[in-house]
Amino acid sequence: MKKSFFLSLATVLTLHCYAQTDAKQNQDFTKYKNSISTLDLKNHLTIVASDEMEGRETGSLGQKKAGKYLIEQYKKNGISSTKATKDFYQKVPAAFMNKEDNENLPDSENILAFIKGSEKPDEIVVVSAHYDHVGIKRGEIYNGADDDGSGTVALLEIAQAFQLAKKDGLGPKRSILFLHVTGEEHGLHGSRYYSENPVFPLKNTIADVNIDMIGRRDSNHKDSNNYIYLIGSDYLSTDLYNICEDANKKSVNLTIDYTFNDKNDPNRFYYRSDHYNFAKNGIPSVFLFNGVHADYHQKTDEVSKIEFDALCKRTQLAFSIAWDLANRANRPVVDKEDGR
Ligand SMILES: [Zn+2]
User: Fold this and answer.
1) What is the pLDDT of residue 1?
2) Residue 2 alpha carbon to ligand 1 centre in Å
3) What pLDDT does residue 25 have?
4) CA-to-CA distance for 295 and 215, rounded, in angstroms?
């Protein structure tokens, strides 16, 4: 009698304690979201998309320099990598990238930063962006500020926000992997390599939030940058669709444009960025995207043209989606066959 009384009291206390943490976590969410700032994003992007990085061509010295900058930022924030990638690098061998369509790419690296979950550390939320771009052509440096400098610096800010929460004892319940992939411009090589050589089992990888180009606007939104294209959120999981919708309402209230989510859209963007290598493995994935513009894959994709207010809001949205995925009671259920 007594024992079970104490047991149930302990259970009640524990539940009470969890409920308190949950309430505090929700209350403080806004604080962490707001730690993502236009100023930080601008400071990071001014470096990542500077001439010094020489357009971040896959395997180039410029890309490696950009990679070092990313790692320095994680270290500064007290964020480490996974056990398997202690120095942050996952080597992506030249032979892997050149196998099908030989472009003579040299060895390159994915960069992995990791925040361990407090309650379900074995369940992983991936937040991804490619940090390669197209390098130097005819003596001109292609800085790729939007593609995908914007997503690259978004990851830094999202990681910092989660780490702030962790320092307050409100860290994510599931683990989060910040995955900076290489070789995207040459055929999604880095993410394909990761999906074939995952550091954590894909069956425990509950979702991918992929960010590729979120710092500009396209011609369909001439009058306002207060929008985002979401692609793929409902292809595998109704839960993920709802999570994205709710996270947006709770945070930045952008207009969500589903134009490119249409499976018959001729642009086929769903197949053209790194989330696809997760989605094809049955992992619910969402792609955040601002659409293409006149500077897409031109030397004029420069920091001076980035709309930092929009970049900030879209980064906050990605954070909000990841926050929900990491902290919600149940992982998103896969209730649909596939998106093809
Ligand atoms: Zn891109």
Assistant:
1) 41
2) 62
3) 72
4) 12
Ligand 1 centroid–CA 285 distance in Å is 16
| Averaged pLDDT for residues 241-247 | 98
Q: Do you find a cis peptide bond into 262, omega within 30 degrees of 0?
A: no
Distance (angstroms) between ligand 1 centre and the Cα of 110 equals 15
Across 224-254, b (16+ Cβ under 10 Å) vs e yields ebebbbbbbbbbbbebbbebbeebbebbbeb
Residue 95 belongs to what H/E stretch?
Answer: helix 94-98
Question: What are the C-alpha distances in Å from 119 to residues 63, 152, 300, 326, 327?
Answer: 36, 28, 45, 10, 9
Long-range contacts from 268-274, C-beta under 8 angstroms, 24+ separation: 269/229, 269/231, 270/231, 270/232, 270/235, 270/339, 272/188, 273/130, 273/184, 273/188, 273/210, 273/212, 274/128, 274/129, 274/130, 274/181, 274/184, 274/188, 274/190, 274/191, 274/208, 274/210, 274/212
What is d(CA 90, CA 67) in angstroms, rounded to the nearest whole number? 12
pLDDT digit string, tens, across residues 171-226: 999 999 999 999 999 999 999 999 999 999 999 999 999 999 999 999 999 999 99
Residue 75 has pLDDT above 80, yes or no: yes
Question: Burial, 149: exposed, middle or buried (Cβ in 10 Å; 0-12, 13-18, 19+)?
Answer: buried
Residues in the chain: 340
Continuous segment of H or E residues that includes residue 313? helix 308-327
β-strands 108-115, 174-181 pairing? antiparallel
Angle subtended by helix axes 151-167 and 38-48, to nearest 10:
130
Task: Measure 148 CA to ligand 1 centroid, in angstroms.
Answer: 5
Q: What is the pLDDT of residues 13-67, one digit of tens each?
A: 666 666 777 777 777 999 999 999 999 999 999 999 999 999 999 999 999 999 9
